[in-house]
Write a structure and sequence with these properties.
Elements: H1 18-29, E1 39-41, E2 45-48, E3 53-60, E4 66-70, E5 76-79, E6 90-95, E7 99-104, E8 113-120, E9 125-134, E10 139-144, E11 149-150, E12 154-164, E13 169-174, E14 177-179, E15 182-188, E16 191-201, E17 210-217, E18 220-228, E19 231-243, E20 255-264, E21 269-274, E22 284-286, E23 289-292, E24 301-308, E25 313-320, E26 334-340, E27 347-353, H2 372-418, H3 437-442
Parallel strand pairs: 2-9, 11-19
Antiparallel strand pairs: 1-3, 3-7, 4-5, 4-8, 6-7, 8-9, 10-12, 12-16, 13-14, 13-17, 15-16, 17-18, 19-20, 20-23, 21-24, 22-23, 24-25, 26-27
Amino acid sequence: MAGRAQPSGPAGSGAPGLLPLLLLLLSAAAIIPRGDGQNLVTEDVTVVEGDVATISCRVKNSDDSVIQLLNPNRQTIYFRDFRPLKDSRFQLVNFSNSELRVSLTNVSISDEGRYFCQLYTDPPQEIYTTITVLVPPRNLVIDIEKETAVEGEEIELNCTAMASRPATTIRWFKGNKELTGKSEVERWSDMYTVTSQLLLKVGREDDGVPVICLVDHPAVKDLQTQRYLEVMYKPQVRVSQNYPLQGLTREGEPLELTCTAFGKPQPTDMRWLRVDDEMPQHVVVSGSNLLISNLNKTDNGTYRCEASNAVGKSHADYMLFVYDPPTTIPPPTTTTTTTTTIPTTITDTTATTEPAVHGFTQLPNSAEELDYGDLSDSRAGEEGAIRSVDHAVVGGVVAVVVFAMLCLLIILGRYFARHKGTYFTHEAKGADDAADADTAIINAEGGQNNSEEKKEYFI
């Protein structure tokens, strides 16, 4: 972009007559020294459009030689600390025998190019610095093929970064995961427009997830835009058991199931049915709930909850197996038979104890519901505990019966011992002197008058 070359020396377009006159005066005042040992140094400048660029011309081992700065058209911007070029965007930042530093504000694309630093020595020295202007993208837009997609569809997204310099690089992200797109670059004059295309197959997990278009460009940081995906999907159905909360579904007990469904749009139609059979009449269905108040073996089967929306239909199954009700354990019974012979004191006692009859819960026939090894161990432990209880009860009953029999034997022995022997009365008193029985009775003590006193008392 450099303009037509000019001979090394002062040049300018701002004041064509003044600059040569000034140079003649300086030449007359002093002799221009030689440039031995002096080095002219500068650096390239990269600046974002609209920012400030600073150009520095420095001299190492300076001997007070004249420094000047020229633009790409080789017009003098500054000669020492004097500005011949009438452009107020150029401002003197620093001037000394060893440095000339100039700032350029509000940089534009037209300012890009080579700027020359000149040192008036014998021979003259010249070095150039390049100003590069960066232009960030003017606009960043995501276009999506469908505002609302259905799960399983492949949609197309396009991200466009317009009018940048240099051409930008576009990266895609879905959430925190980086994706790969396909980019195309178009050049308009000194500007570049980049479009990146992304093909994305969406699922229900993508609903509400942001798709991000991010720009990699030296002129900007963290420039990005995003669009949130909206994905419709058919219901997701789940059946949960409210009662019984834990344990088996047994005959005679209630069962309550609840069906929940989530989808987009939200399901509006939900129904219960029994797979491969009719729904029992005693089953109560209320919205998403199913209730069986009294289970029996005829209720065994698979119960299905179906839900549907505008996208499709889904279902969830519940397999019901009704087990036998638990049985109770009857208390042990004891029968005692006692035979007693009177007046003898021999007692024949026979005590027999009938074994207790214990009920047990019938094991389920479904291997899916219970672990047979666990049930066998549990039943063996239960039967061992029952046998221990039976032996203890039988021993206690036998001890009580033996004690009762001993007490009974002692009481009967004392009773018979007290009432055994010969009984004597006073009715025969005086019979020895009587001629006959009648006389003996009359001659007894007291006669008939004392008959009231002749009484027998058995104690």
